[in-house]
Design a protein that fits this description.
Number of strands: 21
Distance between the termini: 20 Å
CATH topology: Maltoporin, Chain A
Structural class: mainly beta
Largest sheet: 18 strands, antiparallel, barrel
Oligomer: single chain
Number of domains: 1
Number of helices: 4
Order of helices and strands: HHHEEEEEEEEEEEEEEEEEEHEEE
Helix content: under 10%
């Protein structure tokens, strides 16, 4: 089993983290999740490359299950068992953030994930996470993901501290029937966020079930597969006043929002999101390595209701679809001199096209045409007596063309982020391991955004600074230190500390906040059924 700070304990709050650190759990361990986001390209701050994590995470794996997320391949690709538990705390603060990111936050999470063979032809995997996050100041967003592709956002003017509790449960089961493999995965996540103490209290609740199913068929040198995924999210926002007036803004793109002043009536908004994907995968051996290719068609539809107590309430909608294509290849070999090498390359290309329909106008007011390419190369080599060196390079390129048809304003931003992380580990005796690493990355962008002087003050307050950050050059740096003690032959206890920072690397653009942003994470882990890496 493996426990970590996952992409998000609620699966949706990635943007709200706003930390210059990658999540600890590598992507190949989360690709199978039935709760994975579909047809959405959230905008994030640069975070640099993921650390190899030589002592706290297993080496990368590739396959239709691990790479493409096809649950039907689990039975064929899993022949070991692993159990891991983690307790992690994280803190982030600093001014280099967007208006709807939290000013400062603290987070604690416990989780567990595990896999094991079931009988001779089956396999199972599962995880559970509990997450508690405190947003200490300057949180003006009233929705979980204010920087997704959807332009409809709710914000207020209070920015009071908020506490969020989230839980995530998911599991998968697969079986082999000769050449045929079949499997499914199911999950549920929920969260509740509320102000800690505020004259204008606010509440946000979400619940998300998810399900995926797939199959594979072995044709000898090639294995083919098909799979699909579905998830549905219901999100509820309530804001009311107790001792002083409050003001709410329904952001709907780049147009100046009309303020809603709270009085005796509270403000309520309900979001209903349905998303699905359908795709195919193939695994084979070629050029001395193992390969996996996959492709999916993704769709999402969201309706937002304000007066949802009515029998036929008005509804604003966001509809988007796109494609997801990816690959992974892995080579393991022993070089001259006795060094053991493991090289893994992977990449993914995603596209999205969406339209926002506003009921009050009776037409489409906003469109988005977005794409993103992610490439990574992970290299690990074991040499000498107890030495291991890991390196990881990552490149991300994004293009976002977003058009507000009502305000006649457009943003067209092309960004690229590249960097690398290195980690060196050493084994001392039979039961102690130590590793340390560093990472650096740069972010650059080009394009256009709406002229702040032509639009209103609330655009310059809530929307413009986020676009300015997307256009600003930035640099990321960080480090990691891990110590592991093998208490028994297949039981290990480890401590991992990581830190990161992001700051502008050139002159700050208008509307861009000055300063930097910093984060640190401390994690304690217990791993079962695993030898100390040699």
């Amino acid at each position: 089993m493996l426990l970590t700070l996952p992409e998000s304990a609620a699966g949706q709050a990635t943007s709200l983290r706003a930390t210059p650190l990658q999540e600890e759990l590598p992507g190949w361990l989360t690709n199978w999740s039935p709760l994975r986001r579909i047809a959405d390209l959230p905008r994030r701050l640069p975070v640099g490359s993921r650390f190899p994590d030589l002592l706290s995470s297993p080496a990368p794996r590739v396959g239709e299950f691990w790479t493409a997320g096809n649950p039907g391949a689990l039975g064929r690709e899993l022949d070991d068992r692993r159990t891991d538990f983690r307790l992690a705390v994280q803190d982030a603060s600093g001014n280099y953030a967007r208006p709807l990111d939290p000013g400062a936050m603290g987070r604690a999470a416990v989780s567990t994930t595990g896999w094991t063979p079931v009988g001779r032809h089956g396999a199972a995997i599962g995880s559970a996470v509990f997450d508690r996050t405190s947003f200490r100041d300057s949180l003006f967003a009233d929705v979980l993901l204010p920087y997704g592709s959807n332009p409809f956002i709710v914000a207020d003017t209070m920015g009071d501290p908020v506490r969020k509790s989230a839980v995530r449960l998911e599991g998968g089961l697969a079986w082999e029937f000769g050449r045929l493999g079949a499997g499914f995965a199911a999950g549920w996540e929920g969260q509740s966020s509320r102000t800690i103490a505020s004259p204008v209290p606010r509440l946000n609740r979400t619940a998300t079930p998810g399900f995926s199913a797939g199959f594979t068929y072995d044709l000898g040198p090639v294995r083919l597969g098909g799979f699909g995924r579905w998830r549905r999210t219901a999100e509820f926002v309530q804001i009311y006043t107790v001792s002083q007036p409050g003001r709410i803004f329904q952001l709907e793109g780049y147009a100046e929002p009309v303020p809603l002043d709270l009085g005796d009536d509270d403000y309520r908004r309900r979001f209903e999101r349905d998303a699905s994907s359908l795709g195919a995968s193939v695994a084979f051996a070629a050029i001395g390595g193992d390969w996996t290719l996959y492709g999916l068609r993704e769709r999402t539809s969201e309706g937002q209701f304000v007066r949802f107590q009515l029998s036929d309430p008005p509804k604003d909608t966001w509809d988007a679809d796109g494609w997801r294509f990816g690959f992974a290849g892995q080579w393991a070999f022993n070089a001259t001199g006795g060094a053991d090498w493991l090289i893994t390359a992977d990449g993914e290309h995603r596209t999205l096209a969406g339209e926002a329909f506003q009921d009050a106008i009776g037409g489409v007011i906003f469109t988005a045409d977005e794409s993103q390419v992610d490439l990574a190369l992970d290299t690990r080599v074991r040499f000498g007596v107890g030495w291991v060196l890991g390196g990881r390079a990552e490149l991300r390129r994004g293009h976002r063309d977003r058009r507000d048809l009502f305000a006649e304003a457009t943003s067209n931003i092309r960004g690229i982020e590249g960097g690398g992380a290195f980690e060196l580990g050493r084994r001392f005796g039979e039961d102690i391991g130590v590793s340390a690493g560093i990472q650096v990355a740069t972010y650059g962008a080009a394009g256009t955004m709406p002229d702040p002087g032509r639009l209103g003050p609330e655009y310059r307050r809530f929307v413009g600074p986020g676009l300015a950050l997307d256009l600003n050059q930035a640099s990321v740096s960080g480090g990691v230190l891990t110590v592991r003690w093998q208490t028994e032959r297949t039981t290990g206890l480890w401590l991992r500390t990581a830190f990161g920072s992001i700051s502008p690397s050139t002159g700050v653009l208008p509307l861009t906040p000055a300063g930097d942003r910093r984060a640190w994470t401390v994690t304690i882990g217990l791993v079962l059924d695993e030898l100390l890496p040699r």
